[in-house]
Structures are given as structure tokens and as C-alpha cells.
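Annotated sample (chain length 305).
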Amino acid sequence: MGAQIRRKLVVIAVMTAIATLTGPFGTFGEMPLVSRLGYWGTIIIGIAVVVNLSLVVFLSPRWLGALHSVARIALAVAVATVPGAAIIVLVEAQFFQAPFTLDRIEERAIYVALISFMVAYFEMHVRPRVVAHADQSKYTTMKMLARLAHATDGSVPSPQDDLDTVETAAEGHLNPTPAPAPTTTRATKPSRDVRPVFLRNLDARMGEELLSISTQDHYLDVVTRAGQERILKRMSDALVELDGYRGLHIHRSHWVALDAIEAIVKDGRKCHVRLVDGRMLPVSRPNVAVVTQALEAERAQPTSG
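Output written by the structure step:
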């Protein structure tokens, strides 16, 4: 089970527990504890399913791409509001024998919209930024300590050095200080000694052999030789965490592993790389020379055998 799904289940469980214990909207006095658990559990799970399905549609790749993520969240919640309110009225009909009418749906729609938007806004917009900032700060601190520990001249590295490294990676060059390839075998994955922090974001079944990373709004679509996974993270943060993995930031929206590039394909002024899985990803014009040189250097390395 992925970390995102576990997170959603935890949120649902917490909200259900709070509603069961506090008994909002008069349910505390009207229903015993077990009945409240069934009542609120059914409502919260039902609304969560509807809202999350709507979020998947409105936050999916190339869908309403010009809109800000907050606007997408608002649209997703608006679409899910009426079905969510209908779920409440339907559950009320089962527990209280209340009539299932449009008036009752309209009355509850405002509560569904407000609560759903607050939860979705925090989970899909606020929390990813907080987590990404915390991860980056932690990684930068660890990197500074590691550099200090390995210093031989007693000098203390400046924090600006790390900022310069991040900026260089974001400009489309080779990831900073890539892992050196072994002398007798081609590097197809990073050494265990330099396992990038980024790999901790992936499910274990995804393995450690990256092919590409592409941005989709606040998400990253990560493709490995074992499959594909979508995670909440910014590309700039991913580039920092990829320190130690041989790869290229070929385009503002795409990073590829060097050993995943099968060929460079040029069509007039356009340039793409064809990956080992057959996909074609664009290369920005300023990076064409960098990609070409890096690929030539990669292929010039000795292979085993």
C-alpha cells in the first residue's frame, strides 16, 4: 500500500473518530456510541471516496493545465459537493427514516463544500509544501555535516555552496557530483554507499533503477524499470535529493537517468530523447549539447565482460 493511500486512510480514521466522540449536529444526544460510529463512518468514507475521485480527475495530467492548483481543488470539491450531500441525506434516511429530498441535499451541500475544501486544500496544497521544505532543510543539514566530516583542511563549507549546487541542477546540467561509475561495469544504478535520498519517496516494489521523472502540477510521475508511481513533490526538491544518481535535467519538466537514454532524436529545431521503454521526452534547446556530451561520455565507459 502506497504512502499516499495510507495517509488518506489515517485522515479518514481520525475524522471518523472525532465525529464519533464529539457527536456534531445533535448526534451525540440522539445516538449511542456504536451507532454514531456507523453513521459518521459511512458518511465520511462515502464523501472521501467521491471527493478523491473528483480530485483525481481535476488534478490529472494535461487537464485544465492553465489553472492554478487551488482552482483545480475548488472545482473538484464543487463537483463532488452534491453527490457528497446526497450521501448524507441517504444515510440519514437509513438511520433516522428522514425523507430523501432535494431540499435536504441543498441544506447539507454547504457543509460538505466547506469541510471538503478545507481538508483537500490542506492535504493537496499546504502539507506537500511543508513536507518538501522540511525534507530539503533536513537534507541540506545532513549534506553540510557530511562535507564538514570529510573536510581535510579544517575549512567549514558555506551554505551558499549548497544553494549554488541546487541552482546548477535546476538550470539543466548534470546532477551535482554524480556517482562515479565503477571501472569494470557500466553504472545502471547508484552505489549503495550513495543511495539518493529521493528513492525513499518510492514504494519498495518500484526498485531503485530510475528511468525518468516528470512534473505534473505539484506531482512527480516517477518511472522505474519496475513500474510507475506518482508522488507529491516539486522537481527542484527532487533534484536536490537525486544527488548521487547519474542523470540529466533535460527539460524544465523532465529528468532522465543516463542509462535510460536509448537515443537522441532530432526533428528540425526540436530534440527529444528516446528512452529504453520507448517513450520520447523533450530536450530544451539550451540542454541539447549537454545531453549529447553526457550520453557520449556514458557510452564511452568500459562495460563488463
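Annotation: The helical segments are 3-22, 27-30, 33-58, 69-96, 102-150, 159-170, 235-241, 288-299.
Annotation: Residues 151-193 have pLDDT under 50 and may be disordered.
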